[in-house]
Design goal:
The structure is a homodimer.
Chain A lengths: L1 H8 L9 H10 L1 E5 L14 E15 L5 E7 L4 E2 L1 H6 L6 E14 H10 L1 H27 L2 H16 L1 E3 L2 E3 L6 H7 L4 H13 L3 E2 L7 E2 L2 H9 L2
Antiparallel strand pairs in A: 1-5, 2-3, 2-4, 2-5, 6-7, 7-9, 8-9
Helix pairs in contact in A: 1-2, 2-4, 4-5, 6-9, 7-8
The first copy, chain A, binds a DNA duplex through helix 8.
Chain lengths: ~230, ~230
DNA sequence: CGTTTTATTGACACGTGTCAAGGGTGGTGG
DNA sequence: CCACCACCCTTGACACGTGTCAATAAAACG
C-alpha cells in the first residue's frame, strides 16, 4: 500500500495531494498488469473504470465506422486513461493498447467521481491534465490542417522524442516499437508515404533503426529544421 | 445580480450548483458586452481572465507561426472560454472572435481558481465541458485524417446546424454569417474548394444563401448522406 | 523452415491546392 | 443618392503531392 502511494505521489494527477487524498485513492484502487498488445478497454464500451498508467506505454486508437484507424496519441506513465468518459458517463471514445508491458491502477466510476468531488486538488489536476491534452490536440489539428506530410512526420517524431526519448550513444532513441503503419496513422497518411520519407531520412543520416528495433534519431536538429522551416 | 444568477444557472458550468456557489460566482464576475468582430483576448497573451459566454457566438481562431489561420470551433451561449489556459497558467492558445453581438461574464484567474477549488460541482462541470471539447476534437481529427473534403464540409455544416441551427420555412438556418473562407478554415481546405462544393450543392438544391445572408440547409438528409456514405 | 507480417519501391492516377481572371455585393464618402 | 472601392465569391486551367495499386523483399514468428 505504501509502495502504491509512492507511485501515485509521483504522478501529475496527485501533485500537491494531501495525505488523506493519497490514502483514499490508494485504498480504492485496483492494480492491473499489462502485457504488450493488451487493451484496457474498447472504444464504444460503457465506461465503468478509469485508469492511471503507472508504467509502460499505451497507444490510443480510434477506429472509424468504416474500419480505418487513427492514433490519437501515445500515453506514458502518469497519464490518465478513460477518465473523461467515466466522469461524463459516456462510452469510451477510443481504445488504449499497450505497446510494451506495464502496470495500471484503476478505479470504479463511482470511486473516481467521489475522489474528485472530495479532493479539490485532484479535480484541479484533472483539469490540468485534460486541458493539456485538449491544447495538444488543437496543435495537432492545426498541423494537420496546414502542413505537408513530411513536416507532420517530423513534428510527430519530435513529439515522441520529447515525451519518451532516451539518450543513447549516437542520438536519441524512441524506446518502444513504432511501425511505419503506426507513424502513418498518427499523421493521417499511408505507410507507403511514411516508408518513403523515412528511407530518405535514413539516407541523409537523420535517423536509423529498421524493423522492430527502436528508432534512433541521430540528427534531431535536422528534424527540427524540417518541422519548422520549409 | 439576480438576473445574473439566473443567466448562470442555465449554463452547463453551473448545472446542479448550490446557492452559495452561484452567489459567489455572480459576485466575483464582471460583465462584458461584445460587438461583432471584437476579440475577448489574443492567442499568446498571458491568461489573466476566463470567460463564460452568456449570449452571442464566437469563433475560436488559431494562427500558425507562418500566418495561416485555423478555426478550432465555434462557441455558443454557456460555453467556457479561456478557462483551461487560466487554470493551467499558460498563454491563451487561440483567439476568440465575436461573429455576432453578445455578452460574456468573466472572472480573474484567482477568482476562477477559487471558485473551482471551493465548489466541487463546478469542478466536475468544468471537467465535463472540457472533456466534451476534447472528445469533439478527437472526432474532428479523425475526420480530417480519413475523409475527403466534401465529406468534411458536410459534417461541419451538420455540426453547426446541430449546435446553432434554427428552423425556418424552407429548412434549417445557420443563424450567423459564415463566409466560404471560414468554412475552409474549419475544414483544412481552401475557399476555392469550398466555393466549388457549395456551388454544386446549391445546384442540387441542398442548400441556399449567398453572400452575407445566412446559410439555409434545405435538404439536411442529403447532407447526412454525403457525410456518412461514400 | 515455412508462413505471416511489415517494409520497400515503382508506376500511375486523382483530388485538391495554386494561380489567375473576372463578377457581384455591400459599404462608404463625396 | 450615386459612384467607386474593397471584399468576397465564382470559375477555369493547371500542377503537384500523395494516395492507390502492384510486385518484391526482408524480417519475425512459431
Amino acid at each position: 500500500m505504501d509502495a502504491r502511494k509512492s507511485v501515485l505521489q509521483r504522478t501529475a494527477f496527485f501533485k500537491n495531494a494531501d495525505g488523506p487524498a493519497l490514502s483514499a485513492a490508494a485504498e480504492a484502487a485496483g492494480e492491473l498488469a499489462l502485457k504488450k498488445d493488451e487493451t484496457l478497454f474498447h472504444q464504444g464500451e460503457e465506461a465503468s473504470y478509469s485508469y492511471l498508467l503507472a508504467w509502460g506505454r499505451l497507444r490510443l486508437d480510434q477506429t472509424t465506422p468504416d474500419g480505418r484507424n487513427v492514433v490519437i496519441r501515445y500515453l506514458g506513465p502518469g497519464d490518465l486513461v478513460g477518465t473523461v468518459a467515466v466522469l461524463r458517463r459516456k462510452p469510451y471514445p477510443a481504445t488504449p493498447v499497450a505497446v510494451e508491458d506495464g502496470m495500471a491502477l484503476f478505479w470504479s466510476a463511482a470511486a473516481k467521481a467521489k475522489l474528485i468531488a472530495e479532493h479539490p486538488t485532484l479535480a484541479a489536476n484533472a483539469i490540468n491534465l485534460i486541458g493539456g491534452r485538449l491544447e495538444e490536440l488543437q496543435e495537432r489539428l492545426q498541423e494537420l490542417a496546414t502542413q505537408r506530410v513530411e513536416r507532420r512526420i517530423a513534428a510527430t517524431l519530435l513529439r515522441m522524442v520529447r515525451q519518451a526519448g532516451r539518450r543513447v550513444a549516437d542520438g536519441v532513441e524512441i524506446p518502444f516499437t513504432l511501425s511505419r503503419n503506426e507513424i502513418a496513422e498518427m499523421n493521417a497518411t499511408t505507410l507507403h508515404t511514411v516508408s518513403r520519407t523515412l528511407s530518405a531520412w535514413e539516407q541523409e543520416g537523420i535517423l536509423s533503426g529498421k524493423r522492430s528495433s527502436h528508432l534512433v534519431i541521430t540528427k534531431p536538429h535536422r528534424l527540427v529544421e524540417i518541422a519548422e522551416h520549409e
